[in-house]
Design goal:
Shape: globular
Keywords: Glycosyltransferase, Transferase
Strand content: 5-15%
Structural class: alpha/beta
Protein name: Exopolysaccharide biosynthesis WecB/TagA/CpsF family protein
Strand order of the largest sheet: 4-3-8-7-5-6
Order of helices and strands: EEHEHHEHHEHEHEHEHHHHH
GO molecular function: hexosyltransferase activity
Helix content: 40-55%
Number of strands: 8
Radius of gyration: 18 Å
Number of domains: 1
Length: about 260
């Protein structure tokens, strides 16, 4: 399984290979894997994740086990384009609704994990009413201090298994959701786990996402920081501090891309 996860990837960022370059590719690849009964995980790489990868070997290991990795964040997209890769930003939040549409039409049962019971109830109701045929076969809201190695995590895994789901949207925040998803790979055969951050809160309207124009021009991070500067200011400062190192480490890819283009 792990060898498949690294085939045909087109770029790396700080040692993490990205193999899904657009939203349509992400949706088609995930649906195809779910239909074939594979167990797999999906991670969406952004600068905050890259910063945390330096401190958490288990987080890096979870990324390396992911079948599909997308670029979530314009700095990651920009690095890819500098290296000659045509890549689009694909976030976990952007994936939920198109995947639910496909799950409804292709009879792929879905499970929701994360956030809180009220948000999950609202999200399940809205998704089921929006997408014909969608089966949401269960949902669970672990506690706020969820530990992906705990007995609570084991109970969550068992709940997913009993539900019969083949896709599970995991909204626990990084790095917990990625580590949890990696643990599930050996214990939930036939289940795909997608790490989606705050996507369920956006759908339930318990959190507001940045306006679309802000997302398109790459300033979603600024919009979020202005709304919660005390929490997000230090995080984004840490993220910006690693950009020079990432650019420097990408120079060989950039040079190779320019050389191929000139040849």
């Amino acid at each position: 399984m792990e060898s498949q996860a690294h085939e045909s990837r087109d770029m790396t960022v700080d040692g993490i290979a990205i193999n899904i370059l657009s939203m349509p590719e992400a949706v088609s690849s995930i649906v195809s894997a779910a239909q074939t009964g594979d167990s797999f995980s999906v991670c969406t790489l952004n600068l905050d994740h890259v910063a945390q990868l330096q401190q958490r070997p288990d987080f890096r290991a979870a990324y390396r086990r992911a079948r599909f990795v997308t670029a979530d964040g314009f700095p990651i997209v920009a690095l890819g384009r500098l290296a000659g890769t045509k890549i689009e930003r694909t976030t976990g939040a952007d994936l939920v609704e198109p995947l639910c549409e496909q799950a409804g039409s292709k009879n792929i049962p879905v499970y929701l994990l994360g956030s809180n019971r009220l948000t999950l109830h609202r999200t399940a109701r809205r998704l089921a009413s929006r997408f014909k045929g969608l089966q949401i076969v269960g949902y669970d809201a672990p506690g706020g201090n969820f530990d992906p190695y705990s007995d609570e995590a084991d109970r969550a895994i068992e709940g997913i298994r009993k539900s019969g789901a083949r896709l599970c949207f995991v909204a626990l925040g990084a790095p917990r959701q990625e580590i949890f998803a990696a643990r599930c790979l050996d214990r939930l055969p036939g289940v795909g786990l997608l790490c989606i951050g705050a996507a369920l809160d956006f759908i339930a309207h318990t959190q507001n996402r940045a306006p679309l124009i802000t997302q398109k021009i790459g300033l979603e991070w600024a919009w979020r920081m202005l709304r919660d500067p005390r929490r997000l200011g230090p995080r984004y400062a840490r993220c910006m501090s690693i950009v020079p190192r990432l650019v420097a480490s990408s120079i060989p890819q950039i040079v190779n891309a320019r050389t191929r283009k000139a040849a």
